[in-house]
Amino acid sequence: MLLPIKETAGVILDIRYASDNNFVGRAVYARPVALLHREAHAAFVRALARAQVLGLGFRIFDAFRPIEVQSILWDAVSDKTFVADPALGGTHPRGIALDLTLFDLATGEDLPMGTGFDAVTPLSAHGALEGLSAEVIRNRALLLGLMSAAGWDSYEPEWWHYNLPDGDALPVLSAADVPEGPL
């Protein structure tokens, strides 16, 4: 079952694949929604509570991704490190992955992370140091700590990507699995 992440004072939905502001250059989602499997949703709520104690919130770029869209992204990117092979399913099509960043609740400004979301570059890696400021490295470590403490695993090449561990047993879902109407 997929549950929606609702926009609140601590959550901004900036679903990039529902707009042309992404590396494909066009919308590949019909609606700007963020859905997660029940367990992933609970882990997100835990991470959000930790972030809010620090005066931070989450800007959500992507969550559940239908397998049809996974195929579109796979075909559109040359460096396959940055998109899971749809033949293997991946974590987004199972509803157990989030792409997100942190923002300051007082100002609404995103914390600097050194690269943009979906930047296909070695600088996007969690372990990248060269060329990144101390502030960026701290912000990435803060995001990593908040998400890890709530039960999420990181994906090394992408500072913005987190997924629940051991989710391979969950089914891969398609666009037909997205509920219609208000969420």
Automatic annotation (TrEMBL):
Annotated Pfam families: Peptidase_M15
InterPro entries per record: A_A_dipeptidase, Zn_M74/Hedgehog-like
SUPFAM superfamilies recorded: Hedgehog/DD-peptidase
EC number: 3.4.13.22
Catalytic activity: D-alanyl-D-alanine + H2O = 2 D-alanine
Keyword Zinc carried by entry: yes
Single GO molecular function: D-Ala-D-Ala dipeptidase activity
Cofactor note: Binds 1 zinc ion per subunit.
Cofactor section: Zn(2+)
Active-site residues from the entry: E158
Family named by the database record: Belongs to the peptidase M15D family.
Protein name stated in the entry: D-alanyl-D-alanine dipeptidase
Organism: Novacetimonas hansenii (Komagataeibacter hansenii)
